[in-house]
Specification:
The protein is 43% helix and 17% strand. With 285 residues, the chain is α/β, with parallel strands linked by helices.
């Protein structure tokens, strides 16, 4: 084992700090928004804008469900390139960001983040207990090896004020070397065991037609796109066989993904939340 490497990281071969440093450096010039390093580094810019828009809708809905008033102090754990803390500020909240990857924080500052940011791991948040009115975790704990997730969740609950809200958006299906999802029930149990009560949850990112196409692409070319969730979710395979195959793949997804996003509200009404790729959970301490 390397110095500072946990047993979970050694066993899986996935080292979060190294992985996200490489992602930040590789996506630094991908787009001005900073979406690529925190969404899908190998995807076209239009696809990341679509995924970000779907997530933004879900976060606004979660904030309404959480009933977070203007002026509240909110901590964004794993703030990455700062997309959420910039938005929280525009919403009238008082955000702070924390991320374990200095390269991500540099990108956040380069993209106009003016709110406080700090370097720190989710498992060891550099804040006193009971400091924040709300804590948000947008697709962060899913990237922490399962054996270490409990430490991160403990810390998020610790820094919340009594009565504060915790917002989680995490994967509930799929698997890959760098993602460690739980079922919706699993995420809920992990938090409620720590004391907070569930105020509500909903599915996020169904994209059913697009997922069917991705699944078909995986079956036709199973060697493509290592690192993609096995369920054919949005982190889908990108063909490595030829530039032509890659262009064809994304040309089809340029039809299936936007259409799937457009019908997602209807799909949500017709399907249980467990059909979605992510769950959005709101808790009160």
């Amino acid at each position: 084992m390397k110095l500072g490497e946990t047993r979970a990281e050694h066993a899986s071969g996935y080292r979060p700090r190294e992985y996200w440093t490489d992602v930040a450096q590789g996506g630094a010039s991908a787009d001005a928004t900073g979406f690529a390093p925190v969404l899908h580094p190998d995807a076209p810019a239009w696809f990341n804008r679509l995924i970000d828009d779907l997530q933004y809708r879900a976060v606004r809905r979660a904030l309404v469900l959480a009933d977070v008033p203007a002026g509240s102090c909110i901590l964004d754990v794993g703030c990455g390139t700062g997309r959420w803390i910039r938005r929280y500020q525009r919403m009238g909240l008082r955000p702070t960001g924390v991320d374990a990857t200095p390269s991500m924080l540099r990108l956040a500052l380069e993209r106009g983040t003016s709110t406080p940011v700090a370097a720190g791991e989710a498992q060891r948040l550099p804040f006193p207990a009971g400091q924040f009115d709300c804590v948000s975790d947008i697709t962060v704990v899913q990237h922490i090896p399962t054996q270490l997730q409990s430490q991160a969740l403990d810390e998020m609950v610790r820094v919340l004020k009594r009565g504060g809200r915790l917002i989680l958006m995490e994967l509930i299906r799929g698997q890959a070397p760098h993602i460690f999802p739980r079922t919706a029930r699993g995420w809920i149990e992990q938090i409620t065991l720590r004391g907070p009560k569930l105020l509500g949850w909903f599915g996020q990112e169904y994209l059913l037609l697009d997922r069917l196409f991705v699944r078909a692409a995986q079956m036709i070319a199973p060697g493509n796109g290592s690192g993609a969730p096995s369920d054919g979710g949005s982190q889908a395979p990108v063909s490595r066989r030829s530039p032509i195959a890659r262009r064809a793949y994304w040309a089809v997804r340029h039809l299936t993904a936007p259409f799937s996003g457009w019908i997602d509200p209807a799909v949500e009404r017709a399907c249980p939340g467990s059909v979605a790729t992510h769950g959005v959970f709101v808790f009160q301490k």
